[in-house]
Amino acid sequence: MADFKVTELDPDLDFGNLTYWDVIIIGAGPAGLAAGLTTAHRALTTLIIEAKDRAGGQPQFLYADKRIVDIPGFPDGITGEELSSRVYRQAREAFVQFRFNEELVTIEDTDVEEKGDRLKRVVTSGGEYSCRKVIIAVGLLHFPRKLPILDALETRKVHYTMPKIGDYDGEHVAVVGGGDSALDAAVMVQQRNGHVHLIVREAEPIGKADTLQRVRDAGAEVHLSTEIVDAEFHGGEIALTLSSGSVVHCGRAIVQIGFLSAKDTFQRLHVRLNDNGSIAIDPYYETSRKGIFAVGDVHGDIKLVTVAWAEGIQAAIYAFKEITSPYWLNEKRLRDLKISLIGEKLAADASQLSRTNR
Ligand SMILES: Cc1cc2nc3c(=O)[nH]c(=O)nc-3n(C[C@H](O)[C@H](O)[C@H](O)COP(=O)(O)OP(=O)(O)OC[C@H]3O[C@@H](n4cnc5c(N)ncnc54)[C@H](O)[C@@H]3O)c2cc1C
After folding, report:
1. 307: phi then psi, degrees, rounded to nearest 5
2. 25 in the same domain as 138
3. Residue 351 domain-assigned?
4. pLDDT tens-place string over residues 228-250
């Protein structure tokens, strides 16, 4: 029995035959799952559409085995896989509905009105759904940037996500990239008895300096200002010729050099974008289109699970307020504007007063 008040959805509701959903969330990563849990706990019918075959987002697909240590409440850390499965279970138990293997195509406005809202039509690769509010939580889209010189080897020993390997057994592994993801990958290989060759294009890796030090201390060979100029695959072994002239022989390569921009998908949504291609939002996580919110990595500067959760929850509550009390956000915006105008006036009056008193 929960100690907090949750307004449960009716478990007998025929979710398959709803004419429209209160909220549709795109993406079942941390931001989308937290948003879904929050709307369902407020008795809003909630559908999450996910491109992959499972929920969880990056922690599930990019670092399932990594022990995440910066989530409050888990002093011993928690793996990406376990965290994802716990939040997914919580969402299912709150009667959030899921459609997997469906990708968002576009979101259209319709002329159909329901309780003061003009319904939106969410078009996916698998169907069309009507709803009152949409929350976009598609993260980085999981299209890792590829390295053509390694792709050309056509071997499964080149990885773009962290492979699930229990013990590398002394195997030599090339980790390519200098960001936090590459450094994390290097640490994970070392923790599983692998020998790391870290290959970084830049003179200074952009990832955390203390993680780099940890990787060095654990015996990695770190090649800075270095690119791979040639690669061969023979007899189960990869040979990488580096721009420095040295050759690295390894059993596998893990490439972590960032992600392709999701700009094309975002452009199809006709929402305003920031200069860097991310989705522009207002202080209430609403995009330039009314009733469409965006949360998590899709716009965020701070890319963390907890931040994605917090944003998903806030947007869900704003969506709930708008559904239960239409124009709530506009009234809030007007109130904020008035407060800032009052602030400006008070500041002007104060400076006028100090001038007269001089
Ligand atoms: C290697 C690595 C290590 C990290 N370590 C940590 C850490 O230790 N601690 C921490 O707090 N954070 C860490 N992060 C960051 C954290 O994982 C992200 O900030 C967080 O996952 C963002 O959540 P999100 O829901 O916004 O996006 P995502 O996790 O990217 O989830 C988005 C979901 O949307 C789906 N999707 C994408 N496009 C579509 C579409 N068109 N239609 C339908 N579904 C779609 C995706 O498949 C995915 O499931 C790490 C990231 C990486 C890459």
Report:
1. -70, -40
2. yes
3. no
4. 999 999 999 999 999 999 999 99
